[in-house]
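hey m, so remember when u said the tokens were messed up on ur end? i reran from scratch. heres the input so u can diff it against urs
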Amino acid sequence: MMNLFTKAFRRYLLGRVFRFQFTASEDPGISLERLNASGIEALHIYVHIPFCKHTCPYCPYNKVPWDAELAGQYFPALKAEIITYADVIGRFQVPSIYFGGGSPAISPLDLVDGLTLLREVFLITGDVCLEINPAECSKETLRVLKDAGVSVISVGIQSFKNELLNLIGRSYDGVTALKALKNTVELFENVNVDLMFALPHQTLKELESDLKTAIDNGATQITVYPLFTFPYSTIGRYKRLKRVKMPNFMVRRRQYYFVYDYLVSEGYEPVSVWSFMKKASNSKSVKYSSVTREYYLGFGAGAGSYFPWGFYLNTFPVQAYIERLSMGKLPTSLEFAFNKRMDDLFWLYWRFYDTVILKQEFEKRFGKDPKVKRIVEFFRKVGFLTDEGGYFRLTKRGAFWIHLAQNYFALNYVNTIWSRALIEPFPELIEF
């Protein structure tokens, strides 16, 4: 059903013959002049640290087991990439920095070293966000991160239940997960907790218990997402072998609606289709999000960069990334070039994900585009959207369907790109 739904909208908006094409690229073509000409006054930054002490079977992201020798080559290469771009665009304004992985805090001093460099070469004006594995949430590590200026932190707990943690291959238990959350809340005002729903055999009672534990222990934001069974991931292979039986559509919807209603009743409000933030009691509450920043520059193996003229990916294999920079070259591998309309549609996709679309910006981008306006009107009529004056807001029903579309997008489109990029350092063409 989602396949037909997605194909229909793709054909309606982009035409019957449109193909997504990621082509080989060695340089994203960034320059200060080009940014200024595009009206870009600031760029967010993403930094990818691919190392993990324990790789999780469900995780689809670019990751490698911890290797001190390899890390000793990777972090200098990462700094070289940062300096290369800083030499081109100067002390450009950066509203936020996000460290992802892998396990970004696996080597805290190297992370702090990289953050110090970013502050030296760019004008950092906003928050520094970091995701962290519960097994790494010692008070000592958290204090190092806090002192370095990390202000928003996301603890990848997934569940407090030992049975579910074992199912998804996590290396810690529920006691460790709870201690990690308590340690983090002691030091940080803005703490997101990642949890999972629609896991095989997971019950509503278990889901409620996980949500309640996160709330009772101070999570200011809770992100609850489904298990992504990417075909190239270990758990994806298990699914093909019938060792993992995923919940059906009805169970998934029931659990999603339960999460939505429960968190809203506890004083949290939707800030994306998967994330709920505690209603601000002070002006310091900050939304944690890794994917909805408007334009950003990515550093590290497999990192993406998004500009008005295109989306770019660095090479995924860590050794290829290191070698490229040792040769004095950028590690760029793939380019998805697009025009103004594609940029606008990309913006709309992520505003649906955010659950809120500001009318003023929508009119600026699509005021003369009847196709897009008809889609928004259709969503309103079927109960996916409500008109709330200055903005449109996704309803619970709409958020669920956008969540399904996001899941489909990841398992079909993202999987097509990443499964090739993980094994081919520099593909010539990826098309779908």
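this time it looks ok to me. The two ends are 19 Å apart (CA to CA). if urs says something different then somethings off w ur setup not the seq
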